[in-house]
Amino acid sequence: MGLKVLFIIYDNGSFDHVFPMGVGAISAILKRDGHEVTLWNQDMHHWQDDELRTYLDKNKFDVVIFSLIAGYYQYQKMKSLSKAINNSKNRPFYIMGGYGPTPEPEFFIRKSGCDVVCLGEGEITVSKLMSAIQNKTPLKDVPGIAWLENNKLQTTPRAKLVHDLDSLPQIPYEIFPMHYYRMLRLAKAKATDFCFPLMSARGCSFKCTFCYRMDPGYRMRTPEPLLDEVEMLYKDYGITYISFQDDLLMSSVEHTEAVCLEFLKRNLPVVWSCNGRLNYCSEELLQLMKDAGCIFINYGIESMDQKVLNNMKKGLRPEMIVKGIEDTLKVGISPGLNFIFGNIGDNKATIKSTVDFLLKYDDFAQRRTIRPVTPYPGSPLYYDAIKKGLLDKDNPAEDFYEKKHLNSDLICCNFTELSDEEFYECLRWANSTLMKNYFDRQKTSTLAQIDHLYTEKDASFRGFRHSEGKEGQHPAAKTSKKINVKSKVIAIQGNETMDGQVNWEASTTSDADRFSQGTNYNGKTSKTTKSFDVYLERKKITALAKKAARENKSLSKSK
């Protein structure tokens, strides 16, 4: 008999439908080990924080788990929900984990009153921790945890990272309200797309100073089981847009190629997006990604100034950035252009160069603004802020969370030579310029829509309240045949849970028939490995050309 475990999925403060991937991954481990998993889904239902205490008073659980990242909002939710947990009559054993608590476990233990903080990647740790709780064995035998004993912090060495990601059990999607999470809206998605996040790899081979995700190395899933999961999400839940949430999918050209080839083989009516890296953006690779269904690549550029890029150890050059973005746009993929301001070396000139770049290359797939850099705990920049006296060296986490990091659009620590007033003036000017440009574009586009509607009497127009009404219906909306979703929806009302199936309108005519007939999402003939073969040939030709250029240059010098 396993333990009864309650996951807290906290309200993210918006109506964005973001699937809790960490909860999904850990719940898979717990279910594999025979434990009973329940979700308290505040994110979906927007319950008040103190309703958690009422729910725990009426329902007995052995363990409650709360995972969070290092944001100001998440920190405030942690304090409020922890109070509800600790004040409940049947308080369970309280576990906390995630990128937020890992670098500062003692601070989070004392602020939350939790029993244990899991450090780093959680699958191995949580499995062993559950065994220790159930069998009442010492915590010191569990790898990768922190706790207080006699009011002193105790820690154990981190568990080894999971290198064989294919060995992990699949997320038990059936316990999540998939009809809710598939409503996630993403860049370049049609109004009728059903979107969902997925991981193809973990880790990142780069060491940017502002990043707090510092698991070493890059670990990849095998493309075949990865695409098995994509195919399952499409068939069982109607997902037509996959957002790969890897820290950096393009950290490996070989992995990117392999994933693309598998997409081409499967010929699924599914498009996808990912996080990219501009020093890997050859036109040939980008064309392959486009052929395989990629429609959006989110790039972390951060700055157009070489000195600032060097200071943050970004490993990019401005000319590399320009070439990569131009090639991305050239093949027909939308680029996400992400910049921050306030790193060491930033000034009025560097933010102007950023704005100039955005005005030139932004394709308006997203609203683009510039945020001040934040030294999140665990990042090299955090420890640099402590060293520079920008955070209290005696209690930096308290200073960061309680005094400095109050909003992601406001200054936490000023690493520049600008005054705070000058810093804010730079952000005000930059974001005013960018937003004016965005809404000017929206105005022009909307007026053009109006003109087209009434001039051409366009009966396919879906209305100005639909973002992309002329794209056509989602395939799942073209017939009335229903698909039964394998979903256990937890609708908590006091002591009640409801198990059942969720139905939505879906098409077997447009989806299943297209799939079986080997046509792609746009109704074109089936894609084969020809695109990949062409890509390899292009790659070979490019390599030979570069080699010849190097030899000619060397020959010229020798003369």
Report what the structure shows.
- There is one protein chain.
- The chain has about 550 residues and is α/β, with parallel strands linked by helices.
- Among the domains are: about 5-155, Rossmann fold (3-Layer(aba) Sandwich), CATH 3.40.50.280; about 175-375 and about 415-455, tm_1862 like domain (pyruvate-formate lyase- activating enzyme), CATH 3.80.30.
- The chain is built from 18 helices and 17 strands.
- Helix 9 links the parallel strand 11 (about 240-245) and strand 12 (about 270-275).
- Helix 9 packs parallel to helix 10 (about 285-290).
General shape: globular
The number of helical runs is 18
End-to-end separation in angstroms reads 81 Å
CATH class of the domain at 177-373 and 415-456: Alpha Beta
How do the helices and strands line up, and which of them pair or pack?
Elements: E1 4-9, H1 21-32, E2 36-41, H2 42-45, H3 51-58, E3 63-67, H4 72-86, E4 93-97, H5 105-112, E5 116-118, H6 123-135, E6 145-149, E7 152-155, H7 178-181, E8 195-198, E9 201-203, E10 218-220, H8 223-237, E11 241-244, H9 253-266, E12 271-276, H10 283-291, E13 294-302, H11 306-311, H12 318-331, E14 334-341, H13 348-361, E15 371-372, H14 380-387, H15 396-404, H16 420-456, E16 482-485, E17 502-505, H17 508-517, H18 530-558
Parallel strand pairs: 1-2, 1-3, 3-4, 4-5, 8-11, 11-12, 12-13, 13-14, 14-15
Antiparallel strand pairs: 5-6, 6-7, 9-10, 16-17
Helix pairs in contact: 1-6, 3-4, 8-9, 9-10, 10-12, 10-18, 13-16
